[in-house]
Amino acid sequence: PQRGAGPTRPGTPPPTNTAERKDYREMWVRVLGSAAGGGFPQWNCSCPRCSAARTGSRPCLRRSQSSIAISADRRRWFLFNTSPDVQSQLESFPALHTESGSVVPLQSVLLTDAELDHTLGLLLMREGRSLDVHATESVYQTLTSGTSLLRTLEAYCPVTWQPVIPGAEVMLGDGLSYCAFDVPTTKPMRFPGSVANGRVVGYRVTDTINGRSLVYLPCVQELTPAILKEFTGSSVLLVDGTFWSDDEMPGLGLATKTSRDMGHVPIDGPGGSLELLSWQHIERRIYIHINNTNPILLDDSPERAYLDRHGLEVAVDGLELEI
């Protein structure tokens, strides 16, 4: 895993002087999954990128569906989205393994939306003793009245809904806080009856001791001035990298909808995320939630080289950040 995104770099030990250690603190982030829905390669796709992953004809890494975990002490973790791959993702992360007779130090899930690739993993957490689910009213309604995921989960495990209100600062625990922000979208609602506002949110997670923060935004249709303002002062940005171009899916003959039709700002082109993020003063800008058709998944692609020249990164499963 790639490491290093804070006051120290790989191989740099913490301060040993007592006075220096007083203010020494890191927030830890683990990218559990970095792909969009379906993962990479996607089971029913034979696009050039998926074919390369299967045959090994081009350098690339397989990826599971997107989710991250955050901790202030590497002992208790908070999960952001729960993909259908959550079992293998947690199993591949030793910090979330149980010791003899102990409980996995994970009890809270924060959701950015109600999409299946971000919520189906909730059902796989039914063996837990209890679960706190942080979600907006819109997402909560969808998961109870629409997909019924939470109602099903509650039959196995006590679930406590923690309402997420955009703009409100919430103490998460262990010296971490979060503030959600609304991410407007015109993507059609699959489940009638959901509240229109709050269907998609991003999160700014702050270490209240060292003051450093991470913005997690895996789905965004347009990077509006209001959303760009949310990035100000952040140390790390994990942002929607679903599609390279707006016409990516139609161009491959895989769909008729554009990137924006599906609720995702493309990386390239006018108004694309690369154009708007290149000048952002953020230590690390990392694309996540990458669709299987996106050429940046190939390590030797011109698109990947273009991102490298502009200082933007591409997330991989297992990436760890110290903030």
Structural overview:
It is built from ten helices and 14 strands. It is an alpha/beta fold and 323 residues long. It has a single domain, classed as 4-Layer Sandwich (Metallo-beta-lactamase, Chain A), CATH 3.60.15. The chain has a seven-stranded mixed beta sheet with strand order 6-5-4-3-2-1-14. The longest helix has 10 residues. The two termini are 15 Å apart.
Number of domains: 1
Total beta strand runs: 14
Order of helices and strands: HEHEEHEHEHHEEEEEHEHHEHEE
Uncertain segments of ≥5 residues (pLDDT<50)? Answer: 1-22
Strand-pairing-aware structural class: alpha/beta
Let me know the largest β-sheet.
7 strands, mixed
Helix content: 10-25%
**Approximate shape:** globular
Strand content: 15-25%
Mean pLDDT: 90
| Rg computed from alpha carbons, rounded to a whole number of angstroms | 19 Å
Tally the helices: 10
CATH class annotation: Alpha Beta
The CATH superfamily is known as: Ribonuclease Z/Hydroxyacylglutathione hydrolase-like
